[in-house]
Amino acid sequence: MGAWAVPPTGLGGPEWGDAHSIERFAVNSDVRLPRRTRSASVSVPAYWAVVSSMVLIAAGIAGYYALRSTSWAVMTDELQVVRLAESIAARMSPVPHIHGTYYGALAQLYPLLLAPAFGLLGAPAAETAAHALNAVLLPSAAWPAYLLARSVTGSRPAGLAAAALTAFTPWLVLTSTLLTENAAYPAFVWAIYLAHRALNAPSRANDALALAGLGLAFFARTQLLVLAVVLPLALLLHAGPRRALKRHPLLACAYAAGLLLAGVLVSVGSLGIVVGNYAVPFSGNVLPHGVWAATASHLVHVVVGAAVVPFVLATTWTVLTLARRRGDAAHAFAALFAVCVPLLSLEVASFDLRFTPHGFNQDRYLFYLVPLFAVGATAALTFREALRHFAPLALVTTASVVWLLLQFGDYDDRSVIFWAAPAAAIHTIFPNDGVLALCAAVLVAFGLALMWRAPRAALASVATLVSAVGAAQAVYVFERYEDPAMTRPPALPLARDWIDRHVPGTASVALVPSPRDTSTYWWEAELWNKRVDHVLRVSGPTFTPFPADDVRVDFRHGALTGAPPSDFLVLSGGEKRFHPVGARRVAGTDVLQLVRVARPYRLDWATRGLTPDGWTVAGRPATLRFYDAGAGGRRRVVVVLAASNRAALPLDFSLKGGGVERVGWVDPGGARPPVRLSFCIPHGGFVDVTLQTHAEVRIPDGRLVGLHLDRLSTATAAGCRASQVSSR
User: How far apart are CA 66 and CA 471, in angstroms?
Assistant: First the structure.
């Protein structure tokens, strides 16, 4: 059994289609044609129907779980996608804006695809529509994978096998998230397919299409700018410098102009114009300590997630093809594979080491290699080759993978993050890396045995087995990790779009986050409500990196200055820095409250000397300032104080101002009965009440504090003499 490929023709025989396609392939691949070919026994539409069926089956698996999702996986990535999609729908422009301000997130392809849903529907319904689109969009990468494999091998069955290996992977889990990977995965494969066309059949048209593919990938995910480096390097490897310049003048001119522009932008420090917010990864040391080990670790995670066999076959075939230069189509893809796999792995490893906490391996950044493995593997299973040449090198490749797995696997089963590393989540099934390595070796041995004993069945058998493994991995991650996480209830016991439901028409709503609040509440308030289109930053965090309107408390005049025009604010139930005059609660809970206010924003009261979350500091007086609310008069004030349960003894306090004084103490872990004050506020003026505490206690977050201002409320009353309310 000296040969192990498919049909006796050695080129795919009846699955090629018509004679013209055979001739075109022969011209482009330098392959000797058989003397006679049979007519296609399977029609071209039938192959397209099979690919469509694969996409739909993968979509069915993903959609079953993705459509159940009612929550989010990763913030603020998903919130950014939603805001960008809503901006595109509202502005009818793909230029990225968030909160009415330009925001340099250039990966606009996915938000553009989601814009119709988020423009026509409320956020919760639009999210469901987005998940339905994801279920088809991500596995649709099977289409360009089919075309690419057919172009490389001339075999439509090989194309079907590559389509299956591309569609059925553990990364189907990403369809339950609103992440750009859903659009970037098929965009990447289209870009590689168009690049291969340019390398395999040089022409100005194909060069232009290759450049368009690079643009598509870039706007799908800025990370894929790396393909702009892959293409020329692969071209040089495939054709050599002289032939490359001669056969690709359009590419040469485009790259010369691009390099000149990049040089100018770097020299003036304006690289962000081209890459937007992604300029940050270009800064600093792009080859940090440990990057080579991290590169190996990242690659191993994706190789294992892809069931090992495709990588072993593809890598072995690539080495042999580059060494023997068998056909332009095959050699062109081998060049792309040889450049793209290490370069993309290095880019991802560098990014994770520098910007991911603890250098966590996020295989979602690298799963784009799976279609390359798929096409290379089907090429290995299709081309006629002596097994004695292939098998030894395949065994060496397998041994290398096992060694890398045992040396650099670096799986973290204690921190399973299914959306960041779906393939790593599978590792929890195995008791140790040795068992995993043994399973990988068995899979490869099975594939090689099929090549030897049943060469005609090898393509279908290997593709079926590996696809089944990929689908099983996806179902496991969906069931074990995704479904419990993504069907959790919202942070507040309210409808997800509770703000939109209580705001009339197209009214604008501004969030006013309070320091030391739980970020989840504010994330969900913005994610699920289209009317929330501003965030006010009042000397504290906003919990998102998006543009915010800076406002400040004018303590002297009792106003919020610099605020945008909005009659609705979402305030923290624990807000202790200020309170707007006449704020009427519309909806919410004790955690977050939607209130309607008058503009400009005048204040009923404001504080100084308290921590942002309302604690006093021992020995430092806090000031509670009460304003006249538009007309002088008597003000009745209720103050409720509480002490930490970590206090050993009762904590004392004093309240003094407006001609009154109250002193007392608060039991540990309890709240004192309300302290009531009554005083007259001058017209146009204010009254300061000083809150003083002396004891202190260390609370769980390590701070030393005194008492907590649990509640502060005011009410106007009559009874002040004219002399008491005169202007201050």
Answer: 15
Q: Residue 33 gets which letter from DSSP?
A: P
Contacts of 321 (CB under 8 A, 6+ apart): 330, 331, 334, 379
Q: Is the torsion defined by CA of 335, 336, 342, 346 positive or negative?
A: positive
Average pLDDT over residues 417-424: 95
pLDDT in tens, 194-210: 999 999 999 999 999 99
- In degrees and rounded to multiples of 5, residue 546 shows phi and psi of -80, 165
Place of tokens 């001339």: 154
Tell me the per-residue pLDDT of 482-523, one tens digit each, with 9 for 90 and over: 999 999 999 999 999 999 999 998 899 999 999 888 999 999
Phi/psi at 594 (nearest 5 deg)?
A: -90, 120
The vertex-653 CA angle with 575 and 715, nearest 5°, equals 50
The yes or no reply on domain 609-724 and CATH 2.60.120 is yes
- Residue range(s) in the chain whose domain bears CATH number 2.60.120: 609-724
In the chain, what percentage of residues exceed pLDDT 90? 73
With a CB cutoff of 8 Å and minimum separation 6, the contacts of 516 are: 611, 612, 613
Least trusted range by pLDDT, from 77-86, 561-570, 712-721 = 712-721
Non-local (6+) Cβ contacts of 637 within 8 A are: 624, 626, 676, 677, 678, 679, 689, 712, 713, 714
Token couple for 494: 């309210």
Please give the Cα distance from 492 to 477 (Å, whole number): 27
pTM for the structure as a whole: 0.90
Question: Which amino acid does the sequence have at 57?
Answer: I
